[in-house]
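Sat 14:20. Reprocessing the chain from the morning session after the first attempt stalled halfway. Input below, unchanged.
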Amino acid sequence: MLLAEDDRAIRHALERALTLEGYQVTAVADGVEALAQAHRNPPDVLVLDVMMPGIDGLQVCRVLRAEGDRTPILMLTALVETADRIAGLDAGADDYVVKPFDVEEVFARLRALLRRTSPVPVPGAVPEGPVREAQVSSDRQVEAAGLRMDLQARRAWRGGRELELTRTEFELLELLVRNAGIVLDHSTIYDRIWGYDFGPGSKNLAVYVGYLRRKLDEPGAPQLIHTVRGVGYVLRED
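Finished this time. Tokens:
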């Protein structure tokens, strides 16, 4: 794991906590060092502070994604506005934690980023109307509602257009595609994607659904991800 945090106290405390949790941590103090270390010894996951001197966490994200590096990235941020979170997702981050944070939340989000989505159908999901099941053409292909996903290559298309998705976005879309026509409640989605239910006050899922919609939607084409108020979300073509 690569940890980049310019605040010495936070960096040392988080490095110690992550080490005690069993992670092998390389800790650096700024974005320049983070990029150098990521190129020298590619990590399994990155934890980046957003606001660092010189090259900040968002710039580190942009550089790595431009290079084709898909290593999962967790951002640490003191910025709590939705626009700031979306800026991080736009830069290529997979998830974020808002300061001040509980270290257990950091652990939970890291476990979720490192966990591969299970292909087992979600138990207890609620069908809504005529269900159009996802078509699995092989161990690596899944299709529904005009979407096609290559699970092994972690690539996705709507029609002939390839979608540029972060790891978390890909896993969220796969969950929806595998359960096309089925309403998935918030708790189920949180458990399957993040491995933890952050409660009714969390905006995390809404932010990711909104971001995924922006990448999926096309002018004149039907919307695919629908909100079922008070319950959750469903993937279907109207």
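Helices lie at 8-20, 31-40, 57-66, 82-91, 103-114, 167-178, 186-193, 204-216.
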